[in-house]
Design a protein that fits this description.
The chain is an alpha/beta fold. The chain contains 20 helices and 26 strands.
Length: 560
């Protein structure tokens, strides 16, 4: 059974060896996530080169997702960890201002975020280290904020700080993010993940920058702030994909609300026809253990049943002990969950006034009715493949493209397998013949198998113009010359017709295709097609019967 939902995995120290990356790709990795919150440009450049080389070695394209850090608020460097006790009073301040307040020495928490005091207000919650420690803002004293510890613990350098009750003034796209983005564009990454998105304008800012640079890189908006959840409809409209980033989301809104928010966002993305990734702690225990907990397996399966397009691994593959085994386990869970397919009632409510969308639905339905092996979607940008994937066809989709960038981006699309064409015929007939032959060879198709082809008119890979559907029956080129001793033949002074009865499928396509009664049924054997030899002079030699034959048993040759 082919897996439909895609697997995104973060790369890091545990997956930095090229042999490990090859095993991860073979195990099912579709998208490699490079986390810009850690590491150096030199290290990231080496990692990206290794991913590309491992992909080439395995012979499977893999997309690279550059995950920008965003305005992450952190504790600054500490000489020693701070022990916070319940009910104690501390102060928090930007590191640049800490030296101005010697009276608070020994109980001041420094932060790298310059605007924390301005953004905070009395009564606001201040959470440390993914919410493991909690304080309440009491009052402001010039450039510092007095806080009271409600849940204590040991606070170390660089730990995160969350302000769930405050309007953080820092932009979602920081100066560091801009530099990181420029680095990623030079590395030809395939997706950009924008962290801590709060409103549509955050996404549009990056889109505007990419537009000025004439770069068409899809943007994944990470939903992890309460403000983003409130503005989710507007954010979806301007995003190319959505990530349900459950880590900071749980800290900001509370873990008890994450499951319902996850379902809400996935449903909205499915309806809007954009991909959605479910992320964070999906198989967290496999960071240390070779198998996941049953609760984690259920978490992954339920995300699949909710309708997620992809599931993501973070520390499990970046720093865990079992990166390859984790991906194998993820694949097994996803495949098993997909044995119970999600119902598709939204198809009945879909607005099909858009021609492209209507063609995608038609291709999906036709492929099911004719029991097609694959849907072949000819695409330049990948847009048509993304759309057809959102209709959740039961038939696997091959995204046929002549662009390596498009092939890589399709790695995130549910149910779509990229299929890159390097050499192909330049006229319509030879183009389709070349594509079908390559697909037959690569996918192990047999004579008589059916595939459904969607494409635009005029150009083979036309951007955004899929407006035709065709059912193609896999067949060989005619083999009757010297291929068998069982050959029926008829000729006149203009043409010769041969039928290889050893490979004839007796499907009677030729009989229904020919208007001149040249083909018939043997009176001795109702399962044997014959040539009505007295009719061959009427043959128009348009090759319609040759094209209709699924096994290549017919050959028509001109004699003059």
């Amino acid at each position: 059974m082919l897996r439909r939902a895609k697997i995104v995995a973060t790369v890091g120290p545990s997956s930095s060896d090229i042999k490990v990356l090859e095993k991860m790709i073979k195990a099912g990795l579709d998208v490699a996530r490079v986390n810009m919150s850690h590491g150096t440009y030199e290290g990231h450049s080496e990692m990206i080169a290794k991913i590309r080389q491992a992909s080439a070695n395995v012979g499977k394209e893999v997309a690279i997702l550059l995950d920008l850090q965003g305005p992450k608020i952190r504790v600054d460097k500490l000489p020693t960890p701070l022990v916070l006790q319940e009910d104690e009073e501390w102060v928090i301040a930007p590191s640049s201002k800490a030296a101005n307040y010697p009276e608070y020495a020994g109980r001041l928490i420094p932060t790298i975020y310059e605007n924390l005091v301005e953004d905070c207000h009395d009564g606001a919650r201040i959470l440390f280290d993914d919410g493991l420690m909690k304080a309440i803002a009491v009052s402001r004293d010039r450039d510092v904020y007095k806080i009271k510890i409600e849940v204590g613990g040991t606070l170390k350098s660089n730990k995160g700080i969350n302000l769930p009750d405050c309007e953080v003034s820092a932009p979602a796209f920081t100066d560091k993010d801009r530099d990181d983005l420029m680095f990623g564009l030079k590395q030809q990454i395939d997706y950009i993940a924008l962290s801590f998105v709060r409103k549509r304008e955050d996404v549009m800012l990056v889109k505007s920058l990419l537009h000025k640079l004439r770069m068409n890189i899809p943007i994944i908006s990470k939903i992890e702030k309460p403000q983003a959840i409130d503005a989710i409809d507007e954010i979806i409209k301007v995003s190319d994909a959505i990530m349900v980033a459950r880590g900071d989301m749980g800290v900001e809104v509370g873990n008890h609300l994450v499951p319902s928010i996850q379902k809400l966002i996935i449903n909205k993305c499915n309806a809007a026809m954009i991909p959605v990734i479910t992320a964070t702690q999906m198989l967290e225990s496999m960071t240390e253990n070779p198998t996941p907990t049953r609760a984690e397996a259920s978490d992954v399966a339920n995300a699949i049943w909710d309708g997620t397009d992809a599931v993501m691994l973070s520390g499990e593959t970046a720093a865990g002990k079992w990166p390859v085994q984790t991906i194998k386990m993820m694949e097994e869970i996803v495949i098993e969950a997909e044995r119970t397919p999600k119902e598709r009632p939204f198809l009945r409510k879909m607005d099909l006034s858009n021609v492209n969308a209507a063609v995608m639905v038609a291709a999906s339905m036709i492929s099911e009715k004719v029991e097609g092996k694959f849907i072949l979607s000819m695409t330049e940008s990948g847009s048509s493949c993304r759309k057809i994937s959102m209709f959740r066809p039961k038939t696997p989709v091959l995204g046929v493209t002549n662009s390596v960038g498009t092939a890589r981006r399709m790695c995130l699309n549910w149910g779509v397998r990229p299929f890159q064409i390097h050499e192909y015929g330049r006229d319509d007939f030879n183009f389709q013949k070349d594509v079908v032959n390559k697909v037959k060879s690569a996918m192990g198709l047999q004579n008589g198998d059916k595939i459904v082809i969607t494409r635009g008119d005029g150009k083979f890979f036309a951007r955004g113009s899929s407006n035709s559907v065709k059912v193609e029956i896999i067949k060989d080129m005619p083999k009757v010359l010297g291929s068998s001793d069982v050959v029926e033949e008829a000729s006149d002074y203009q043409k010769k017709i041969q039928l290889d009865t050893s490979i004839c499928a007796s499907c009677q396509n030729c009989i229904s295709t020919c208007p001149h009664d040249i083909w018939g049924i043997s009176p001795e054997n109702e399962h044997q097609t014959i040539i009505n030899k007295d009719k061959i002079s009427a043959c128009a030699m348009d090759m319609a019967c040759v094209e209709a034959c699924p096994t290549g048993a017919i050959e028509i040759m001109p004699l003059t």
